[in-house]
Write a structure and sequence with these properties.
Layout (H helix, E strand, L loop, with lengths): L2 E6 L3 H12 L4 E7 L9 E3 L2 H7 L5 E4 L6 H10 L3 E4 L7 H14 L3 E3 L9 H9 L3 E9 L2 H4 L15 H14 L4 E11 L7 E8 L4 E7 L7 E8 L2 E6 L4 E4 L2 E3 L8 H15 L7 H12 L1 E5 L5
Parallel strand pairs: 1-2, 1-4, 2-3, 4-5, 5-6, 7-10, 8-15
Antiparallel strand pairs: 7-11, 8-9, 9-10, 11-12, 12-13, 13-14
């Protein structure tokens, strides 16, 4: 039986990633979409989730691609309607919200798949396996991109709860927490806020693993030219570089060939979602979210030049 899906939030990520992945996966049928401002050809379209659920009650699952400020209400509504839920990252506006959603899914026996798409990149498994038997010495994250290219005209990312530069930065933290054999905590942070915006445009984090290894992170939304999404981890027996947001991995400068079947983050996300729904299980890991929250809690706030959207 194909899983009948309703997609909520038809923005850039939905059109670029979710819709193509769903249409290419025989396990799913994209039946309906809900958006205030957009429609999708070939499906039933509704202005909001409530209207979609009322008109199409036989949906099996809901995939939510709205900005994080709207995740909690949408996911809670879908779970209470008896639907399985897949959440685009970041998972919610607050850490308490995602905890409550996990509890709700468990009570109702429904799947909550709180996704981190970067963990499904082609180089991640090889990186995790390399680090599993190595002793880490130090680490560095360089995650810099041009916000005008990746979030053109998107005001929500600068509003409270919009994450600012941590919207891409949380991808790096999701990779780090996935591949490291030890847990990591934020020890200090400097967050740069444009004087006319409510979310940071850049951030520097100093983190430390539970066994004392320091890892630094530089996040910046002002990058021009080549974009940087790299993690470099030095061990006592080699230097691992996870580049391109997890797409490629090298050890001591030598590329490690990834399994071709690992290509495509979003097809792999939906493959996992289908298996979780079938098994009646949830997958929720908010450690990357906690690291971002901790950076806001203990970070030094600096005001920088205004940023125009």
């Amino acid at each position: 039986m194909r899983l009948r899906v309703g997609l909520v939030g038809i923005g850039k990520i939905a059109r670029d990633q979710h819709i193509p992945a769903l249409k290419a996966d025989s396990r799913f049928e994209l039946v309906a979409c809900a958006s205030r401002n957009a429609t999708v050809d070939g499906t039933a379209n509704f202005p909001d989730l409530e209207a979609m659920l009322a008109a199409v009650p036989d949906l099996h699952c809901i995939s939510i691609c709205t900005p994080p400020q709207a995740h909690f209400d949408a996911a809670l509504t879908a779970l209470r309607a008896g639907k399985h839920v897949m959440l685009e990252k970041p998972p919610a506006a607050t850490t308490r919200q995602i905890a409550l959603l996990a509890d709700e899914a468990a009570r109702r026996g429904r799947t909550l798949f709180q996704t981190w798409h970067s963990r499904f990149a082609a180089g991640v498994d090889a990186a995790r396996e390399f680090l599993r038997t190595r002793q880490l010495v130090s680490g560095k994250i360089i995650w810099k991109e041009d916000v005008h290219h990746w979030h053109p005209g998107q005001r929500w990312i600068w509003e409270p709860g919009g994450f600012g530069v941590f919207d891409p930065g949380i991808n790096a933290l999701s990779l780090l927490t996935e591949i490291l054999p030890k847990e990591v905590c934020v020890e200090a942070a400097v967050l740069e806020f444009p004087e006319n915006q409510q979310s940071p445009i850049a951030a520097n984090l100093r983190m430390r693993t539970e066994d004392g290894v320091e890892i630094g992170a530089e996040f910046d939304f002002r990058q021009k030219g080549e974009q940087s999404w790299d993690i470099v981890l030095t061990t006592t027996s080699g230097v691992l570089k996870l580049a391109g947001g997890g797409a490629s991995v090298s050890i001591d400068g030598k590329a490690v060939t990834a399994d071709a079947s690992m290509a495509g983050e979003y097809p792999r996300l939906y493959e996992r979602f289908a298996s979780l729904c079938k098994a009646g299980k949830s997958e929720v890991d908010w450690r990357p979210f906690q690291l971002v929250a901790d950076a806001f809690l203990i970070g030094e706030r600096r005001i920088v030049a205004p940023h125009e959207i």
